[in-house]
Amino acid sequence: xxxxxxxxxxxxxxxxxxxxxxVWRKGFCRKYSELLTRIQNNTYNSLxxxxxxxxxxxxxxxxxxxxxxxxxxxxxxxxxxxxDYLYKRKALLKQFxxxxxxxxxxxxxxxxxIDNMRIQAFSSSIPIDxxxxxxxxxxxxxxxxxxxxxxxxxxxxxxxxxxxxxCSGHYSVSPPDWCVSxxxxxxxxxxxxxxxxxxxxxxxxxxxxxxxxxxxxxxxINRLLNEGSSPLMTEIEQYxx
Length: 241
Ligand code: SF4
Hints:
two-stranded antiparallel ribbon; globular; binds iron/sulfur cluster
């Protein structure tokens, strides 16, 4: 049975919508969502163009959930936008709360280890490529644990319009049948990051640290729902981004 929205989440929602922060948050989420649609189209088109020149085709299909068992992070800025999307869709918010409990049992400890490594690396200004390489064994272990993303229901992503850019930039170009976790044949996946112009625009929408500070997706959303954005914003003050 789907859980009810707790009093704490309702209290935080009220607080997030209040005063000058509430006004800023509303405008920020609108602009970020518009930009996100453009970024999603740009990444898709850029991969489609590259593939045409290489004779490859994007083979992703509706209902395929292979990538939704991978380890995914989201920035604080993007997390605020996802939470706003859930505030406007209470049935989806309840679904997340329900799914998070199941995710927590399997995913919290390992994602906490990855987050700690990433935060330490970020605060010492280690380049993103090194961070990805260093955390790869743990991310691979996460995938092997078969942990389903809590935003997945009926084989569909229920925050599809505002899903993280790492999800919207992930495409398979191998036969769809290869996207099965217990198959020895690994699918050929391309991960396209947004172009420099779009990335700059994202960081310019707010304090750039909001776009740089990332946590595991479910953890970030759960914290924003239960604590609000203020403790997370205070948290980034201590890191040397
Ligand atoms: S956010 Fe959506 S697309 Fe991304 S892993 Fe979760 S269910 Fe899949």
